[in-house]
Amino acid sequence: MRWKSSRRSGNIDDRRGSPALRAGGIGGGLGLVALVVVTLLGGNPLELLQLVGGAQESAPARPAQPDGAAPTDEMGAYLSAILAMTEDVWSEIFAESGGEYQEPILVLFAGSVQSACGFNTSATGPFYCPPDQNLYLDTSFFDELARLGGAGDFAQAYVVGHEVGHHVQTLTGTSAWLRSLQEQSGSRAESNQLQVLMELQADCYAGVWANRANRQQEVLEPGDVEEGLAAAAAIGDDRLQREAGRAVSPESFTHGSSGERQRWLDAGLSTGDPAACDTFGETGLTRSE
To answer: What secondary structure does DSSP assign to 153-186, as a single string?
Structure first.
């Protein structure tokens, strides 16, 4: 990606250097294992966040605002540039419909972190916390992603774009609508299916962002789209289940198969239109205002 001449976001809270946040918890080395286990059990990663948080209530809280210190390493600078691109794109999209985009904060951490979702570890992978509307990322996840076949800078940008997609869902009310449907659902499998639709829409929103960012700044280079699609395939539920040596169990999916994740990321990439991301409409679900 062409990013070095792009502006940097001021909405970065870099906590990677805090010794207190590195100590305790499950530990970053178990990240993929825990993430795969949650997926295989058909769970929502947020449930793991809340479980870990409940066990660590005494952990010191940090304000949900950036501390003003910009990252000084190349990875931090890269993520700051990517976040700025998401801000520019989604501000433009919201303005087109007369709205105003509220920018989230990207919290970078190493090992463990305090959030409004509790005291969390890198075992959950990158996540979005609705109560504080922040994104949380331990960049060691990118090593696991590369090991699974999702290497490259645009693969990393796709991860950020996906989490920003969840923020967009919160701002538009889609998240609250989905949670109400899940509460009304009669089974874990049905709740999981609804979660898949939400995750696939976030994939599509990541594609919308990349399309629009490329229109604004020509940031995509040859091979970037392929990197993103490879990353989407690498973290499909079916791929992760096979990686864990288990039979593929669609009823336990919470994020979608590799093919589904690629399809919806590509839908956003191809159109740059959020309206193309109606994963719910395909199943007959219609959100009533």
So the answer is: HHHHHHHHHHHHHHHHHHHHTHHHHHHHHHHH-S
Tokens 């890269």: give the residue.
78
DSSP three-state, residue 6:
coil
For 5, 86, 144, 231, the CA distances from 81, given in Å and listed in that order, are 9, 9, 22, 20
Amino acid found at 11: N
- Among 34-43, 84-93, 276-285, the range with the most confident prediction by mean pLDDT is 84-93
Please give the model's pTM, rounded to 2 decimal places: 0.84
Give the span between the Cα atoms of 135 and 90, in whole angstroms: 15
From CA 192, how far away is CA 279, in angstroms rounded?
14
DSSP 42-83: T--HHHHHHHHHHHTTTSPP--SS--S----SHHHHHHHHHH
The domain spans of the chain are 12-283
What's at 53, amino acid-wise? Answer: G
Give the distance from CA 116 to its chain's centroid: 16
pLDDT tens for each residue of 3-12: 999 999 999 9
Q: How far apart are CA 62 and CA 78, in angstroms?
A: 24
Write down the residue that tokens 């990686």 correspond to.
243
- Written as one letter, the residue type at 275 is A
DSSP letters spanning 105-154: EEEE-SSEEEETTEEEEGGG-SEEETTTTEEEE-TTHHHHHHHTT--SHH
Could you tell me which of 202, 16, 189 has the C-alpha nearest to residue 127?
202
Q: Angle 227-145-169 (CA atoms, 0-180°, nearest 5)?
A: 80
Question: For residue 144, how many other CB atoms are within 10 A of its CB?
Answer: 19
